[in-house]
Design a protein that fits this description.
about 90 residues; mainly alpha; 2 strands
Length: about 90
Amino acid sequence: MSWEEEDLPTRPMPLHERPLQARIDNEMAIIAEHHIRIALSIEKFWGHKDCTEYLQSLILSGYKEGEKRVGFKSEVLSALINLAALHRLE
């Protein structure tokens, strides 16, 4: 999509141009919508080395329901990957 110069101040801001906290909040909202316990755990560990390890284990292992692994929906997996990258930035 191209924007005329006079439209630039009113165009929607792409996610990658948003402030860091807004990007984190967006990804957390996606995760919380589908997996509230995982979102609460991420909030608890955010800012610590354990958070990075937790995110990586979720990404690599998938979601475990009881003992069977059911995997994540694509939007949740994408949000987890984005959060892992954002955690490294913070």
